[in-house]
Amino acid sequence: MGDRGFLEHRERELPPRRPIGVRIRDWRDVYADREPDSPVLRRQASRCMDCGVPFCHTGCPLGNLIPDWNTLVSQGAWAEAIERLHATNNFPEFTGRLCPAPCEDACVLGISQPAVTIKNVELHIIEEAFARGLVRPEPPDQLTDTTVAVVGSGPAGLAAAQQLTRAGHTVAVFERDDAIGGLMRYGIPEFKQETSVLERRLGQMRAEGTVFRPGVDLGSQGHPSGADLLERYDAIVVATGAPVHRELAIAGRDLAGIHLAMDYLPQGNRQARGEEVEDQITAAGKDVVIIGGGDTGSDCVGTAVRQGARSITQLQYRSRPPEGRGDAEPWPTYPNLFRISTSHEEAGRREFSTVTERFVGEAGRVRALVVQDSEQVDGRAVGIPQSEREIPAQLVLLAMGFSGARREGIVEQLGLELDERGRIRRAEDYSTGVPGVYVVGDAGRGQSLIVWAIAEGRAAAAAVDAHLRGRRSELPAPLGAHTSQLRP
Length: 488
Description:
The chain has 488 residues and is of the alpha/beta class.
């Protein structure tokens, strides 16, 4: 049982962030170094109520055993805590840094007090486990005679690969970029998650037997085709994500200096690691405007700050969210609230209810944006007449999200179909119309959270394992993580 510390410790305590003036001068994690076996953390974990009906479970797509490991942390039982955490989550060091923590919005304590710091407890469990040598390779006891190709090395693909490797199948993970990790390597800035965190886990997976093949653009000339994969592997897991970006088709879009966020951020990550980047897109000395109010836009803010932008403006067409729950979003739902990221703390201004009408150029390069205040009409943001104004910009970054999977190449060659929302069609067990081919993560779900990617990776692995063995799989899978129950 929990210590019922919520009766005594009512304050929500989080780890300190490095001072803004210090952290913007480097690319390291914005949080200060973790305190081992922190008494503050034990105190916060003890605030868990050990509820009869723990709604945090329903808030977490992985079904994490949150009350269990909160109690164990409050008692300092780190070996038992990491065992409970790894029982449902392959990569808690990723979710502990990158997940928006819907579990905390579903925390029962949150009805009357600040919610338990679940995400921070999770991160400390895995970091304490690594520090104590409690995270070891888990190779299978024996191998099957079946092979699996995982296409894509983001969190969904990696989760599926690790589970299938541990089940005894021979697994190869293909990645078209020059290194494994997908968006976790090239889309997530170093100040949110350092590459060493990813490499540490990949080392465990290599020791377990997973084979990584980076720099292989399946389906393109000179690389294996869909037919090659179908011939060589007993099962294929497509985890290519949803890389097709949303565009802004307005006057001036062809001006130099207007770039996609996902062209800009990977270059920033390479810069942070000391790599040479040819013709790098940089914010240094420029007025930067970011169109899009989500996490990707926020990541652009932090990157532009570290590159020395002169000014930063982030535009969002929706109105500013409320700071507290509205009647339409009662507990335990995940509410749309006004949230301030670590990047927003550092610099720049945010403008809401704003739409871009056109780009203005000079000598072929963008000079400014013409924007309007907007209002919602039938669910669309419509500009308000006579509210036009200019915002100076020599660099514009489009961070408006993603619309689906890439059809060309391996998806087309495997004979997979896309639905009306650009997602690869799949059944409840992640299978497609092509025998032995499964689709997992954003490629089938659409743009979503890292926690959903890992949940789907685990569930799909169980489905693939059952297909290969011809019987029910013994691999654990998150309850309800099949497609009929996935939120759009």
